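Dear colleagues,

For the upcoming journal club I promised to circulate an example of a predicted protein-ligand complex. I picked one with iron/sulfur cluster because it came up in last month's discussion. The inputs are reproduced below in full, followed by the predicted structure.
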Amino acid sequence: MPDPLPGTPVTPPVAAPRAKKRPKELAVIDQSGCTGCEVCIEFCPVDCILTVPGPDFDQHKKLVEIDLEVCIGCKLCVKYCPWETIEMIASADALSVAARWTQRSVLPQAEWIRDASGIEVVASGPLPLPGAKPG
Ligand code: SF4
Ligand code: SF4
């Protein structure tokens, strides 16, 4: 390629964006065994474990949930949960398992987990893409 003329701005080459590689497994919390001790939060290297209101939205009984879009599958939370209530689930299944195991989902499908009357229903069947509204 010839040298640019003097005074011509040079545009640096732009690297093609890399596709994000998903972990083989993601961590899913079974909230029926979660005490809200928050030990797992201390160990997560990507800060993807969030506190959420517990049953009946009681702010004094917090539970935790994992943002599956951010989880890197490192298993540290599984290792250190004193109540052994976190499991590694195949990435393809993690979202539907999380929908069954969590009472108050902060995942993008939170609205979808409620039916038209606002009553929570157990998720079943294929999950919509994150952000998609129920049909
Ligand atoms: S597996 Fe690792 S990244 Fe995922 S929630 Fe647990 S500690 Fe965080
Ligand atoms: S360490 Fe286990 S019991 Fe404690 S908040 Fe996390 S998932 Fe719940």
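Two points we might discuss: The two ends are 53 Å apart (CA to CA). Helices lie at 39-43, 76-80, 91-101.

See you all on Thursday,
B. R.
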